Amino acid sequence: MPRWGMVIDLDKCVGCQACTTACKNENNVPHGSPEEQRLRRDIYWNKVIAVTNGKYPRVNTELIP
Questions:
Q1: CA–CA separation, 21 vs 50, rounded Å?
Q2: Which end of the chain is more exposed for a tag (fewer CB within 10 A), N or C?
Q3: pTM, entire model
């Protein structure tokens, strides 16, 4: 059985979560209701994480899919 992966160009990542949505659509994973999202019960096989480094005025945000 073939195993598939996803290639993400990290230099172009803006944190839009399109890769997460595409993964859910391709694998028939439910997106969850707003109530499930509020309770943090939504399902993620991949998730974009924003990591903030530094202090004002020199703040840098890295997006990690």
A1: 17
A2: N
A3: 0.47
